[in-house]
Amino acid sequence: MKKRSIPALPARLIDPRPVIAAGTAAWLVSLVTLLVAGVHTTAMWVAVCGVGVGVGIYAIFAWQRSAVRRGAATAQTSLPDVQREGDKAVDRVIVEIPHQQ
Question: DSSP state, 2?
Fold first, then answer.
């Protein structure tokens, strides 16, 4: 079986924090806009839920990162910008390619 080296993705492409922050900010902007406009319909409650879900997702993400930093045995270890003691930065990913006959 041949092995091929594939460059790892840059950290900015695998970091979910900007996406979570942008989504939560968009829901927050829509909520503030609805409140300023005096629109108290279902749309306002959808925006409230959007902000709540965004904050909840970020809280779970932060909780997982802190578990990795603490060295918890059950922690997820594939999170960006978090290194355990002894881990080296991965420059390349090795993928095995099945031999075709």
Answer: E
Could you give phi then psi for residue 76, rounded to 5 degrees? -70, 135
Check if the beta carbon of residue 73 is closer than 8 Å to that of residue 53: no
Domain with 53, as residue range(s), is 14-73
- State the virtual CA torsion across 5, 10, 13, 16 in degrees, nearest 10: 110
Which spans in 6-41 are helix H?
11-14, 17-37
Dist. CA 59–CA 78, nearest whole Å: 17
Total domains in the chain come to: 1
Arithmetic mean of pLDDT, 52-79: 83
pLDDT by residue (tens digit) across 12-52?
777 788 999 999 999 999 999 999 999 999 999 999 999 99
Q: Which helix (H) or strand (E) holds 44?
A: helix 42-70
Place of tokens 């997820």: 76
